[in-house]
Structure formats: structure tokens, C-alpha cells
Specification:
about 110 residues, mainly alpha, elongated
Length: about 110
């Protein structure tokens, strides 16, 4: 989210930042492998990391995109269950309006009051 930005601008920023994701995932894995060897030893550490490779990579990718978006002034904001329900209950145009409101920093309580 970023005050004054629309969902289209947020999507454009995500597309611009997406190329950083693969390297972020790779860096997260390398860091975890090195750390695991230091903390759990040369045999056990890598086994633990290998068993969690997909979530580690995914988190590293998300973190890389988040860092890029932060440089553009955006901040990650997870939707509440109520917001998800409200979005799912709306048609496409009303959904876009609500998403724009949320991206701009609004809340469900303030939707329609601005």
C-alpha cells in the first residue's frame, strides 16, 4: 500500500520488482545453508534446510520484492479476513474500488466515506 497510489500503480510496481525475486530466493537458501552448518553441523544443518527449501526460497523471494517495493514507497499490508470477505462479496467494479481504497491506505471502516 502507499497513500495516493492506485491498484494499477501497485501492480506496475510489483511487475517492476518481480525480477528481484529469483535472486532473493537463492540468497535466502545460501544464507540458510551457511547458517545451518554453523549452528547444526555439516550433516544435520543442510538436511534441515533441504527439507524446508521451498518455504525458505518463497520467503526470500517475497522479501526481495518487498525491499524493492519499499524503495518505491510501498509497504506490504496483509488483508484481514473481513477485507477478503468484503472483496469476495463484491462485483468486479466494486472490488476494484475497494482494492484502490485499501492500496491507498484506507480501511474497510473508511470505505465509502472518502
Amino acid at each position: 500500500m502507499q497513500s495516493g497510489k492506485t491498484i494499477e500503480q501497485a501492480n506496475a510496481a510489483i511487475r517492476a520488482c518481480a525480477p528481484y525475486a529469483p535472486q532473493g530466493g537463492k540468497n535466502a537458501l545460501v544464507g540458510n545453508y551457511v547458517g545451518s552448518v554453523l549452528l547444526a553441523g555439516i550433516i544435520i544443518g543442510p538436511i534441515v534446510v533441504a527439507s524446508n527449501e521451498d518455504p525458505i526460497r518463497a520467503q526470500g523471494e517475497a522479501n526481495a520484492v518487498d525491499r524493492c517495493l519499499a524503495k518505491e514507497g510501498f509497504k506490504r499490508r496483509d488483508l484481514t479476513q473481513e477485507e477478503v470477505s468484503a472483496l469476495n462479496a463484491r462485483g468486479i467494479n466494486a472490488r476494484r474500488d475497494l482494492l484502490n481504497h485499501l492500496v491507498m491506505g484506507g480501511t474497510l471502516a473508511t470505505f465509502g466515506n472518502t
